Amino acid sequence: MDWLWAHPGAACSVLAAAAALAAARLAARGSGAGGRAIGLRLRGLAAAEDGAAAVEFALASPVLLALVLVAVQLGLVAASRRAVEGAAFAAARSAVVWVPADAGEGANRLLLAGPSAKRERIERAAALALLPAVPPEADGGSGDLAVAAPLRDLARETGLGDPDGLVFRYAAARARLRLAVQVAGDPSRDSVLVAGPADPLTVTVTYACPLFVPLAARFLGVRDSRTGGFQADLSAQCTMRNEGTPERELVVGD
What angle do CA 105, 111, 114 make, to 5 degrees? Predict the structure, then answer.
């Protein structure tokens, strides 16, 4: 299943090819009677070949329908995964800018537990990048008053849709994302991350992607105990070097 979420486009192509092959096989079997079968139907007679083809089609139709639904869901997941990759980039770009800043937490430090103004801004950048992946029917979370007003103004100025709906989708993105920041690929064991200038910061964004396509959602996802629906975790990483410059040492005689 990990390969499936990592390569939804390839899986969708395989399913489409399987559905086309099955449909072609049914069509070939159904046309075996040729013009003679058509003439028999016109005279009100039922050919044995046609009856067998009809039975085969009735038996195979649920499988074909399931393949189509799974292909549709995988296509939606592929689009969402692109958004998650963009969210990881946006969060990493925000991290390398905000971690060197002071912001009440000290330069080159990031609080990993408890309230953190820096982590809030990093998560906000990820949530904004995730907006294209959040469907309107997704469940919302707690609102972000600092972002709600600008989002409404953006929706009105650009015609992106219902202003309140955009705020709702942003809240849903915040509720469905998890974010982790590491230095040099090693997870911090403390509640404070310390990163020096030019240290590589790796940001991992995990998005609980809601699945809504009937049957395919049940087959591909896991049930969300909070909402009762189905979802799949999509993750992406991005590594950038921390900004800032090292403090210049004071040398006698300067």
Answer: 110
Each residue of 27-49: pLDDT tens digit? 555 444 444 444 444 445 445 55
- Is the sign of the CA dihedral 148, 153, 158, 164 positive or negative? positive
Counted residue by residue, the chain has a size of 254
Residue 183, strand partner residues: 186, 201
What is the sign of the dihedral through the CA atoms of 224, 132, 118 and 148?
negative
Query: How far does Cα 46 stand from its chain's mean position?
Result: 51
Residue 242 has what DSSP assignment? -
| Cα R_g (the chain), whole angstroms | 27
pTM (2 d.p.): 0.71
Angle at alpha carbon of residue 91, lines to 87 and 93, rounded to 5°: 115
Residue with tokens 């969060």: 91
